[in-house]
Design goal:
Homotetramer. By secondary structure, the protein is an alpha/beta fold. It is built from six helices and four strands. It has a four-stranded parallel β-sheet with strand order 1-2-3-4, sandwiched between helices. Helix 2 runs parallel beside helix 3. It starts with 12 loop residues before the first helix and ends in a 7-residue tail after the last strand.
């Protein structure tokens, strides 16, 4: 109840501006759209880089600007959660562009937290390991590739969608009222191994 989905290409700056500006009012925002175009570093194409930057970074910045401006104009406190990745913290083979855009997203989120905090808007990231979404299954269906990753996760498994959703709900809620500028790792311990 109260959730109205908007279907649009977030890389289309003007269409995004029109659609999101017409929506609202906002108190909460989750930026979850992402692409993962996996290529070895020496084979990264301009198209892959541009698409990844458009969706993984620029769309977050743009949608967050629109929503934060509305929150500020309404004088309401709010919370923004950006879905990042453990890949923002650890290099992964064939993930040069993905790792880079997610690292940039983490820093963007920290700057947003600093600048939006005085307006009572909290900004955090969740940084999951591989999540068993359609995209996760496509990129991690090879048992040899997935075994190498799972072996580095102390809990011994990839995340399920609910693992990430529950973390997002916590960061959106008043239970995290003093949490901003943080990255919540939902990685089964990957980064400590």
């Amino acid at each position: 109840p109260g959730i109205e989905p908007l279907c649009l290409d977030l890389a289309d700056w003007d269409a995004t501006e029109a659609a999101v500006s017409a929506a609202g009012p906002f108190e909460l925002l989750v930026n979850n759209a992402a692409v993962a175009v996996l290529q070895p570093f020496l084979e990264v194409t301009r198209a892959a880089l541009e698409r990844s930057l458009d969706v993984n970074l620029q769309a977050v910045l743009h949608v967050s600007q629109i929503v934060a401006r509305q929150m500020i104009a309404q004088g309401v406190p709010g919370a923004i959660v950006n879905v990042s990745s453990q890949a923002s913290q650890r290099a992964l083979r064939d993930h040069a562009v993905y790792c880079s855009t997610k690292s940039a997203l983490d820093m963007l989120s920290k700057v947003m937290a600093m600048e939006l905090g005085p307006h009572k808007i909290r900004v955090n990231t969740v940084n999951p390991t591989v999540v068993m979404t359609d995209m996760g299954r496509i990129n991690w269906s090879d048992p040899q590739k997935s075994a190498a990753m799972i072996n580095r996760i102390p809990l011994g498994k990839f995340a399920e969608v609910d693992d990430v959703v529950n973390s997002i709900l916590f960061l959106l809620s008043d239970k995290s009222a003093m949490t901003t500028g943080s990255s919540l790792m939902v990685d089964g311990g990957f980064l400590v191994s």
